[in-house]
Write a structure and sequence with these properties.
By secondary structure, this protein is of the alpha/beta class. It has nine helices and 13 strands. The chain is 21% helix and 21% strand. It is globular and about 65 Å long. The structure holds flavin-adenine dinucleotide.
Length: 334
């Protein structure tokens, strides 16, 4: 960890500039909207943030490292990525990814039929917790809806170098095999509506559209980056995964097994607007395979570059465990 934190010491006065309780809403350059070019690189970056009481504050910086993740912007339940038709109507029966099934949110699921939508590790986590709840709470039922033919994004012991994550795959598949969880495969969600007291989920399956009734839905379809704060900043992002263009080919699940990401740092993470870096989970855009180790090395390289230590910024060392997380259909994630 010291290796990652060392470059931070080189940034003078950083502690005095930390703002707690403020959410960043916009980034720009002082006196320059996106269209102005002359003198752009020399203009400080402006970060606008908003406090809980609605206070708005603009502050200027030499660089912005955006490590705000993607957790607050979930993918859509609809297979075309748009807002699911009917969602507003049934919204109080839809839970975001990773509910606390066995703790805080237990009452939502106990004795009810829950459908978890999504094929990745977040979905597997929830499916396992619900299967466990079903043992103790009579009437609890679980369906796992995926649009692929099998939950092959969830790894197992043979393909995953991360034992904890592999065990998720093993346990989720076992719950399906045991009949504690019903797998609804090849189901592409296209709409939702009330059917009495239940939610009727419409999905394309094979050549027709079928209806699946459930009490509660969990949206575990993954995450996407919220880029709205960059309206006035020039970013260079890949069309497919919405990651920095030079990083995207290294992580695009359409072409890569996810363990193969090559070491990368400030150069791959740079944008036309100098001094702006998306790092961490957000740097992966919609690609599902980010690991913290990657983020630590990204941040170390970026901070070294900002501190003027170009040699250290260029010396990227990144060794990731082998994983078989990705299939090659570019479908659901996380
Ligand atoms: C269930 C689950 C398990 C996981 N397990 C692992 C694991 O074992 N190993 C692993 O490597 N990865 C794991 N991941 C992936 C993990 O999410 C990331 O590795 C890690 O959390 C990403 O770190 P981050 O700093 O990029 O983003 P985050 O951890 O999401 O942090 C983002 C931070 O930015 C703040 N923020 C967001 N928007 C704003 C804003 N506008 N202004 C100011 N602040 C903002 C948020 O409040 C948050 O504190 C897991 C993910 C999930 C969902």
């Amino acid at each position: 960890m010291a290796r990652y934190l060392e470059p931070l010491a080189a940034l003078d006065g950083i502690a005095s500039r930390i703002r707690l309780g403020m959410a960043v809403t916009d980034v720009s350059r002082e006196g320059m909207d996106r269209t102005r070019t002359a003198g752009r690189d020399a203009a400080p970056l402006v970060v606008r943030s908003r406090g809980a009481a609605g206070t708005v504050e603009d502050r200027t910086f030499r660089a912005v490292i955006d490590a705000s993740g993607t957790f607050r912007s979930a993918n859509s339940l609809a297979s075309n990525g748009l807002t699911l038709p009917g969602l507003a109507e049934v919204a109080d029966r839809v839970m975001p990814a990773l509910p606390d099934v066995l703790g805080r949110d237990r009452a939502v699921f106990a004795g009810r039929h829950t459908t978890v939508v999504g094929a990745g590790h977040s979905a597997a986590n929830t499916v396992i917790a619900l299967a466990s709840l079903a043992r103790d709470e009579p009437g609890t039922r679980v369906t796992w809806a995926i649009r692929t033919a099998s939950p092959d994004r969830v790894t197992d012991a043979e393909t995953d170098g991360l034992p904890g994550r592999a065990s998720l795959g093993v346990r989720a598949r076992r719950a399906v095999a045991d009949g504690r969880v019903t797998l609804l495969d090849g189901f592409e969600t296209v709409g939702a509506r009330w059917d009495g007291d239940a939610v009727a989920l419409a999905g394309r399956r094979g050549t027709g559209v079928t209806t699946h009734r459930t009490d509660v839905l969990v949206n575990a379809t993954g995450f996407r980056p919220d880029l709205s704060m960059y309206r006035e900043i020039r970013l260079d992002l890949d069309d497919v995964v919405e990651a920095p263009r030079r990083l995207a080919p290294l992580i695009d699940p359409n072409v890569h097994s996810c363990g193969t990401v090559e070491p990368h740092g400030y150069r791959e993470l740079a944008h036309p607007d100098q001094g702006v870096f998306l790092v961490g989970m957000k740097s992966y855009g919609r690609a599902p395979t980010f690991l913290l180790t990657t983020g630590y090395e990204q941040v170390r390289s970026v901070v070294a570059w900002i501190a003027g230590d170009v040699a250290s910024a260029r010396a990227i060392e990144l060794v990731l465990p082998a994983t078989g997380v990705c299939s090659t259909d570019g479908g659901e994630c996380c």
